[in-house]
Amino acid sequence: MNRLTSLSFTIIALGLLAGCATSPESKFYTLSPAQVAEPSKAVDRVIIAIDPVSVPELIDRPQIVSRLSANRVSIDEFARWAEPLKSQIARVLAADLAQLIPGAIVSTYPQRVDENAYRVSVDVQNFDSSMDGTVMLRVIWSVRPPKQGEKVSGRSVVTGTATGPGYDALASAHSRALASVASDIAAATHSAMRQ
User: What is the mean pLDDT of each run of 10 residues along the chain (195 residues)?
Assistant: First the structure.
């Protein structure tokens, strides 16, 4: 066997061994609805439609983004959201509102919107996760009653701390923060219903 052939076999063998090396496995996380301890009293059938949620472009990606400082973030390629964050936020808010307003039929956009639906708009200004386990959520929202009712608007700023290390605890802390936002929206919905 000549030297060139031997060198070629060595390069191919090294290439095959490098191809067998494994990269870290991605882990996927999701937000979840909170368990409400004290739901409001049951209401007559009310329909609530959550419009598309807007989120900052920085976090509108599959990877989980953590804030390292005021001007620096970390984007973890192997820690990912299981579905788009704006879809998860709408789904969790809908589930939380359904618990907070028993008897309510809550859906997320897109859907056939009933003219008797209360329309909820949600604009997430900040959805920050820090490496120390602190989360901060700042949301501007509004509840628009059906027909001629007056719109109720508000702003929720929620901070929380993860109960343990890792992204699972961080996702759980964000879920609890969203439950607080849902509570504010539920109170505004009750206020709009009394108009």
Answer: 62 59 83 77 79 95 92 93 96 95 86 80 95 93 87 95 92 96 94 78
